[in-house]
Amino acid sequence: MDEVDSVEAAVLRLAEGQLGLLRWDQARAAGLSARQIGYRVSTGRWAELLPGVYRVAGAPRGWRQHVRAAALWAAHDYALSHRTAAALWSFSRYGEGPVELLVTRNARTPEGCVVRRVPSLSFHDVRTLDGVRVTSRVRTLLDLAQTEAEADVRAALDEALNRRWLTLDQVQAGLEKRSHRRGLGVLRELVHRYRGGDGPSESELEARVLELLESAGLADVERQRRVVVAGRLRRLDFRLPGTPVVIEADGYAWHASLESFEKDRARRNALTAQGYRVLHWTWSAVHERPEALLRELHLTLASLAVTRRAAP
Hints:
Layout: H1 3-16, E1 21-23, H2 24-30, H3 34-42, E2 46-50, E3 53-56, H4 63-74, E4 78-80, H5 82-88, E5 99-103, E6 113-117, E7 126-129, E8 132-135, H6 137-147, H7 150-162, H8 168-177, H9 185-195, H10 204-215, E9 222-229, E10 232-239, E11 245-250, H11 258-273, E12 277-282, H12 283-288, H13 290-310
Parallel strand pairs: 5-6, 11-12
Antiparallel strand pairs: 1-3, 2-3, 4-5, 7-8, 9-10, 10-11
Helix pairs in contact: 5-6, 6-7, 6-8, 7-10, 8-9
């Protein structure tokens, strides 16, 4: 193999390990001249995705490649953040979109990216994930709290707690370290509420149910209320205060076997025998006919009021 071929092979090996990408200085360090790099771009063998970052022809394209391109563009003292970090950490509400990152230097924002400048990035706030620097889960949650809607922040916190990615102590510690930062009031209030016993939703479905109830003016609904039914401690997903009305958020996974189906029916029968009125709200119903669910709920409450008035 002659020198030209060996340089080309080294460059391709480097690109292969970076989702088909490489940076200008990497190509130069591998032995290519500026003229050779320019020739590859002009002939279509390479395409410039971001300033100084190239994709080798034939390399598979996709969102993660754009994420890696942003990381190569930033080079150092950066961290993928906000929605991008949430997607990389597998938060359910976040997926592909404009690449967001934090950098510690002044830089012109490349097309397709959202760049925020910060004075510094603590090593406590940064992790390496799939070969790129990403804000830690705690820092990601704090960043989302400053930019996202309250419902989305609550859903992200719920998921992090229920999937045991984070503990309330870790979130609280993160908040205390950034007590000077604005925009964290929602997250502080959620942590305060959860520490008081109002536990987090156990699923994305429960988060959606809560949003629907709040949209109907039922923000004071009791969540995860523990009661003793037929001699066993039960947890009610949602209960309307002052009423026997209970709303259960039913995901398919909970009823995917005959055993779980039977347990659920036995649970419902026990609740009914003790005087509870149980409504089951499924994922599809919450998404496809939320108005019908609220109508049924109001009819149930109305029927209870009529029964009370008719009682001797």
